[in-house]
Amino acid sequence: MLYSKIEGEGKPFIIMHGFLGMSDNWKTLAGQYVEAGFQVHILDLRNHGRSFHSEEWSYEAMVQDVYEYCQANNLTRIDILGHSMGGKVAMLFATTHPEIVDKLIVADIGPRFYKQHHQDILAGLNAVDFSVKPSRNDVEAILSQYVTDFGTRQFLLKNLYWKEPGQLAFRFNLEAFNNNLDAIGKPLADYLVFNNPTLFIRGGNSGYIQDQDIDGIRKHFPNLKLETIPNAGHWLHAENPQLFFELTTTFLKE
Asked: Which residues are within 8 A (CB) of 195 and not within 5 positions of it... i.e. 6 or more apart?
């Protein structure tokens, strides 16, 4: 069963992180959604955070995990939000289990195929040798040779934890990602459609959802609303959390 944090009372609202992320990334916004009247479930997807590790890693497997999570928690009608990889999971979940999903929110990802672009990050992660018992600073020094962006490095370093005294490790299952890397860019199948209200939010400075993608998105999600957060990149919910919260809660309460 997936690890989750459940807070609040009201309509169940599932939130799913992106690649190499975890539920903690959404902690602050989750608290705001609780105050807005939702029962918030922030998940760690398989091979991420505190959830289980598995050799199998695909969108189909992650969707099945979320479905089993809903069954176990008696969630029969939900709203769902996913960012990046989590957005792909949310899209596939909504189109294959529309009887469960009332409203869908997708943050800065589309249903199309995405070419692999995490090579530098994965090279940096694979360069860390935990057998020599590196410190947190040692790990950051190694990552900095591959990942120049400070914010991205800090995001990755959130995955460090003390496996035992003096021994750090990453929470995610790096081996599974190395073996299944092409899975993350997989497109939504052409025939899949979700007819309920759907909100896509993109960052104005992000190239993940471009104007030429909109017609393709609408084929899968005909009841589409698209919003853009100006001056924000792919991490739009972290760069402008106030506007992100306003746009999503307005949509959820319509």
From this structure: 98, 222, 223
Q: Are 30 and 57 in contact (CB under 8 A)?
A: no
Instruction: With H, G, I as helix, E, B as strand and everything else as coil, classify residue 169.
Output: strand
58 is catalytic: no
Is residue 247 within 8 Å of residue 217, measured between CB atoms? no
Active-site residue among 4, 23, 84, 206?
84
What pLDDT, in 10s, does the model give residues 51-69?
A: 999 999 999 999 999 999 9
Kindly report the length of the chain. Answer: 254
For the entire predicted model, the pTM comes to: 0.96
Q: Which of 17, 220, 234, 237 is catalytic?
A: 234
Whether residue 23 lies in the annotated active site:
no
CA distances (Å), origin 98, targets 101, 110, 191? 5, 18, 14
| Centroid of chain to Cα 242 | 19
